């Protein structure tokens, strides 16, 4: 591998029917999944930002809907 001002020079190899590269340790991405897209001749690889469930729920607006009162409805029979 050769380091240049614009990035690292790495080799492309085949993994089955896919092309693949090894990402050098200093360029590792967090997480287990990424988004990859092509812009012209460039491939852009971005980590998927994950939020803990508590932070995700905190972003949501509360529901103002009134839910119907279902009272004590009898259970429906189930055939097993």
UniProtKB/TrEMBL annotation:
Source taxon at top rank: Bacteria
InterPro entries registered for this protein in UniProt: SpoVT-AbrB_dom, SpoVT-AbrB_sf, VapB_TA_antitoxins
Pfam families: MazE_antitoxin (PF04014)
Alphabetical UniProt keywords: DNA-binding
Domain SpoVT-AbrB: 10-50
Keyword RNA-binding belongs to the record: no
Record family assignment: Belongs to the VapB family.
Name of this chain's protein: AbrB/MazE/SpoVT family DNA-binding domain-containing protein
Organism field: Trinickia symbiotica
């Amino acid at each position: 591998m050769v380091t240049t001002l614009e990035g690292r020079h790495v080799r492309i190899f085949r993994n089955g029917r896919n092309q693949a590269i090894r990402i050098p340790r200093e360029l590792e991405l967090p997480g287990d999944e990424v988004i990859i897209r092509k812009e012209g001749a460039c491939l852009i690889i971005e980590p998927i930002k994950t939020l803990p469930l508590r932070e995700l729920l905190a972003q949501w607006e509360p529901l103002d809907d009134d839910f119907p009162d279902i009272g004590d409805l009898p259970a429906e029979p189930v055939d097993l």
